[in-house]
């Protein structure tokens, strides 16, 4: 795009200085090409941001390492100095955008439902029961349930736990729902 712009700019300057009217159609064609390329780039980046936002709803606030691995270095390691919103026009900083979206969503959820807030990312489908049987796929360690008891989540162990407490762990691939 930069090369097209510079080529167009030099033709515009030449057309102005030497009065060459034969360059006008070429200038207009390049200008239309630049506008089309810009629209395509913005559409791609917007789609990418929508996909990154969907990852927050699907996997929670911590992205699995396999997904982080597939994000580019710019998306994952970028450090943005200001706190301004990174819109679709920014190529770098998608992970920063993800982190800001995650914080914004967390702030909103804390503002709902009184003192503890309300996690609107839970129960994406209405639950059939409040407790589910789960199998641990990885060693996780101690896991505290709302009544204060703790459960040791070791690989291949099965537990009967509250759905809302383990749904994030299911999304992260630590637990799997056992359908009997």
Automatic annotation (TrEMBL):
InterPro entries: GINS_A (IPR021151), GINS_bundle-like_dom_sf (IPR036224), GINS_Psf1 (IPR005339), PSF1_C (IPR056783). It holds the Pfam family PSF1_C. Gene3D superfamilies: 1.20.58.1030. Residues 128-179 form the DNA replication complex GINS protein PSF1 C-terminal domain. It comes from the Eukaryota. Residues 8-75 form the GINS subunit domain. The keyword Nucleus applies. The keyword Metal-binding does not apply. Keywords: DNA replication, Nucleus. It is found in: Nucleus. Belongs to the GINS1/PSF1 family. Required for correct functioning of the GINS complex, a complex that plays an essential role in the initiation of DNA replication, and progression of DNA replication forks. GINS complex is a core component of CDC45-MCM-GINS (CMG) helicase, the molecular machine that unwinds template DNA during replication, and around which the replisome is built. Component of the GINS complex which is a heterotetramer of GINS1, GINS2, GINS3 and GINS4. Forms a stable subcomplex with GINS4. GINS complex interacts with DNA primase in vitro. Component of the CMG helicase complex, a hexameric ring of related MCM2-7 subunits stabilized by CDC45 and the tetrameric GINS complex. This is DNA replication complex GINS protein PSF1. It comes from Bos indicus. The lineage of its organism: Eukaryota, Metazoa, Chordata, Craniata, Vertebrata.
């Amino acid at each position: 795009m930069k090369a097209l712009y510079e080529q167009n700019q030099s033709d515009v300057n030449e057309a102005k200085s030497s009065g060459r009217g034969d360059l006008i159609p070429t200038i207009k064609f390049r200008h239309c090409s630049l506008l089309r390329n810009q629209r395509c780039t913005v559409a791609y980046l917007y789609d990418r941001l929508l996909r990154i936002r969907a990852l927050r709803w699907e996997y929670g606030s911590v992205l699995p390492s396999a997904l982080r691995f597939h994000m580019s270095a710019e998306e994952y390691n970028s450090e943005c100095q200001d706190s301004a919103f990174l819109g679709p026009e920014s190529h770098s900083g998608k992970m920063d955008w993800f982190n800001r979206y995650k914080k914004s969503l967390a702030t909103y959820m804390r503002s709902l439902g009184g003192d503890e807030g309300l996690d609107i990312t839970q129960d994406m489908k209405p639950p059939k029961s409040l407790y589910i049987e789960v199998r641990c796929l990885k060693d996780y360690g101690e896991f505290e349930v709302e009544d204060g008891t703790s459960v040791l989540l070791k690989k291949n162990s099965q537990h009967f736990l509250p759905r809302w407490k383990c749904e994030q762990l299911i999304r992260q691939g630590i637990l799997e729902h056992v359908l009997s």
